[in-house]
Specification:
By secondary structure, the chain is an all-alpha fold. The protein has two domains: 1-128, no CATH class; 130-184. The chain has helices at 2-20, 24-48, 58-62, 68-96, 101-126, 130-183.
C-alpha cells in the first residue's frame, strides 16, 4: 500500500511537470522579476532609513528597514502569480486544446508591472527619473508593435477565411454541375 502511494505520487508530480513544462521558462522569468523587485526594494528602503550617525555600525542599523511584512507580501505575490499563470494556462488548454496568447499576455503584464516597480525603486535610490522614463518608452514601443501584429494577424485570418469560403463555394458549384449532368 505504501509503495503504491509513492508510485502514484511520483506519477502525479511527473504529470504536473510535463503538463506545465511549456510555461516553465515563463514562470522562471516571473520569479526572477519578483525577486529582483524585492532586492531593489530592500536596497532602496535601507538607503532611505535614517541612521543614528553617532553610533557605529550604520549598516547594522539599516537592517531595521527590512520588514517581515514586506517579505511576506513578496512571497505571497510570487505564489499568487505562479498559481494565476498556471490557472490561465490550464484553462486555455481545457478550452482551446492549445495555448493561445492569453497566458503569454498575462505573463507579460505581470513582468512589466514588476519592471515598473524595479524602475521606480532605482529612481528613488538614485534620485532620477531615467529608469521609469525608459520603461514607459519600452511600453509605447511594445504597444505600437503589438497593434501592428494584431492588424497583420487579422488580415491573414480574413484572407484564410475568404480562401476557405471560395474553396467551399467552388466545391458546391462542382457538385451542383455534376448533379445537373447526371439529371440530363
Amino acid at each position: 500500500m505504501g509503495n503504491e502511494i509513492r508510485i502514484y505520487g511520483v506519477a502525479f508530480i511527473g504529470g504536473l511537470v510535463a503538463f506545465f513544462s511549456p510555461i516553465l521558462l515563463m514562470l522562471y522569468v516571473i520569479m526572477a522579476s519578483v525577486l529582483l523587485d524585492c532586492i531593489t526594494a530592500i536596497i532602496q528602503s535601507m538607503e532611505a532609513y535614517k541612521v543614528d550617525e553617532t553610533k557605529p555600525y550604520k549598516l547594522w542599523q539599516r537592517r531595521k528597514a527590512i520588514r517581515s511584512r514586506g517579505l511576506r507580501k513578496t512571497a505571497l505575490k510570487l505564489i499568487l502569480y505562479v498559481l494565476f499563470i498556471g490557472l490561465i494556462y490550464s484553462t486555455e488548454i481545457a478550452i482551446f486544446n492549445t495555448s493561445v496568447y492569453i497566458t503569454n499576455f498575462t505573463a507579460f503584464v505581470i513582468v512589466f508591472s514588476e519592471l515598473i516597480s524595479i524602475a521606480e525603486n532605482l529612481d528613488k535610490l538614485m534620485n532620477t527619473h531615467k529608469f521609469t522614463f525608459l520603461i514607459v518608452r519600452i511600453r509605447k514601443l511594445f504597444e505600437k508593435r503589438l497593434m501592428q501584429e494584431m492588424q497583420v494577424t487579422d488580415i491573414e485570418e480574413e484572407i484564410n477565411e475568404t480562401n476557405k469560403l471560395e474553396d467551399t463555394q467552388l466545391r458546391v458549384n462542382k457538385e451542383n454541375l455534376k448533379t445537373k449532368r447526371n439529371e440530363t
